Structure formats: structure tokens, C-alpha cells
Amino acid sequence: PDALESLEKQYAKLRAEAPASDRSPEIFLLAGLNDMGLSERIKAELERIDQAYPNDAMVKALIKAYAPVVK
User: Fold this and answer.
1) pTM listed for this prediction
2) 57 sits in which H/E element
3) How sure is the predictor about 37, in pLDDT bands with cuts at 50, 70 and 90?
4) CA–CA dist 31, 36 (Å, integer)
5) I need a labelling partner for 22 at 20 to 30 A (CA). Which of 16, 31, 35, 53 fits?
6) Residue 21: what are its φ and ψ, rounded to 5°?
7) Maximum C-alpha span of the chain
8) Is 18 helix (H, G, I), strand (E, B) or coil?
9) Which helix H or strand E contains 43, and what residues bound it?
10) What are the φ/ψ torsions at residue 38 (nearest 5 degrees)?
């Protein structure tokens, strides 16, 4: 639980500091969730990110890359 809370805080900080077009914070978040083995949370975050950034090529690539994890 502490690791997840720390990850979420770091993500929020990165997202606040990064330009809107930068997907690095999302990559950081997804990688951290993957390290923790939280596949359901990855799936939820991918859905949220896809809705937040429709038609974004990087988001589509992330969805494709994490497809095996969320199945």
C-alpha cells in the first residue's frame, strides 16, 4: 500500500510538471503498476489515459504494449 501511494504521488507530481503533450508520466505510472503486478489497475489506467488523450499515438502504443498484461 505504501509503495502504491508513493507511486501515485510521484505520478501526480510528474504530471503536474510535464507539458500536456508529454506521456512520460503515464509511462512511469504504468511501469510502476506493472512492477507491482497490478494488472487490473493497469487496465483501468489505460482506459482513463485513452479517454483523456484520444487519438494519441503514444497512448495507442501503450495499450498495445500492455495488452498481454491486462488479458
Assistant:
1) 0.93
2) helix 57-70
3) very high
4) 9
5) 35
6) -85, -5
7) 34
8) coil
9) helix 39-52
10) -95, 70
Return the H-helix or E-strand segment holding 17. Answer: helix 2-17
Checking if the pLDDT of 39 tops 90, the result is yes
Amino acid at 63: I
Given CA atoms 35, 39, 44, 46 in this order, what sign does their dihedral have?
positive
Q: Are 53 and 59 in contact (CB under 8 A)?
A: yes
Q: Which three cell numbers stand for residue 45?
A: 489506467
Cell representation of residue 65: 504494449
State yes or no: pLDDT of 69 exceeds 80: yes
pLDDT over threshold 80, residue 1: no
pLDDT in tens, 16-33: 999 999 999 999 999 999
